[in-house]
Amino acid sequence: MPVRIVTDSSAGLPQEIVDELDITVCQLHVMDNEDSDTTTSALSALEIAAEYGRQMERGGDEGLVGLHLAKELSSTWSAAVTASAVFPDDKVRVIDSGTAGMVLGAAAMAAAKLAKDGADVDECYEAAQNTIERGKTWVYLSSTDEIRRSGRMSTTTAMISTALLATKPIMALNDGRLELVGRTRTQTKGFIKLVDLVASEAGGKPVFIALQHNDAEEQAEILQDLLEQALPEGSSFILTELNDVVAVHVGAGAIGVSAVYSA
């Protein structure tokens, strides 16, 4: 039986890909609190251990690769590490991803494709890690309100963003932290800046691009068209909605762009 690949819902993998590659997705918790605000919470070590156990049984104890959102963004990673200690012989490998979104999803896809071809747990782990190392994520925000409240950006960036509420900021996810890398006053200028940031890393080689939006499909399609014009031939694209666990932190109108560059 193949090595099992487990990620969490922060990756935002479309269901058809999950089904095709037989990837297991642990659902992070989305809750409404007493103030009518929506919040999220991490998976517990017990929940993850239970899922890992089920998947190890399915895979005939061939091994498992766990891919979870950055430890700087959630305690899910540390819970996964605790859960992995239940299993012997280094059969459960948990990656310190430093990321979220479809870079994480692409890493799960790469590992799952190898697993289906009979690769062992070390080979699957290395493929996932290599994909993450070649990945970058940016987020275009229509508003900074939700992300400031969530605490998911650095203190300095939060202070700058508070002073620039009229702007359309572009954030980069670096080592698990959101940092301000661009600010513009219009969507058009924001998209031009974002395309330049993505394309400047391509080096003339094809790029895998995933665009994830929160109630902004039309705008995401415009951005995809711009990226298709700017990126090398052979680049591939996925356009999908942000799932609830990420959307509650970035607000309506947000668009995430995840890029995995060629080796």
Question: What can be said about this structure in brief?
Answer:
With 263 residues, the protein is α/β, with parallel strands linked by helices. 41% of the residues lie in helices and 25% in strands.
Question: Could you characterize what this model shows?
Answer:
- With 263 residues, the chain is of the alpha/beta class.
- The chain has two domains: 4-133, Rossmann fold, CATH 3.40.50.10170; 135-261, Hypothetical Protein Tm841, Chain: A,domain 3, CATH 3.30.1180.10.
- The chain is 41% helix and 25% strand.
- The protein has ten helices and twelve strands.
- The protein has helices at residues 15-21, 45-58, 76-84, 102-116, 121-133, 145-150, 155-163, 187-199, 217-230, 244-250; strands at residues 4-8, 24-26, 29-32, 38-41, 64-68, 92-96, 135-140, 168-174, 177-184, 207-213, 236-241, 255-261.
- It has a six-stranded mixed β-sheet with strand order 9-8-7-12-10-11, sandwiched between helices. It has a four-stranded parallel β-sheet with strand order 2-1-5-6, sandwiched between helices. A two-stranded antiparallel sheet has the order 3-4.
- Helix 2 packs across helix 3 (76-84), helix 4 runs antiparallel to helix 5 (121-133) and helix 8 (187-199) crosses helix 9.
- The longest helix has 15 residues, at 102-116.
- It starts with a strand and ends with a strand.
- The relative contact order is 0.15.
- It comes from Corynebacterium casei LMG S-19264.
- This is DegV family protein.
- InterPro entries: DegV (IPR003797), DegV_C (IPR043168), DegV_domain_contain (IPR050270).
- Pfam families: DegV.
- Keywords: Lipid-binding.
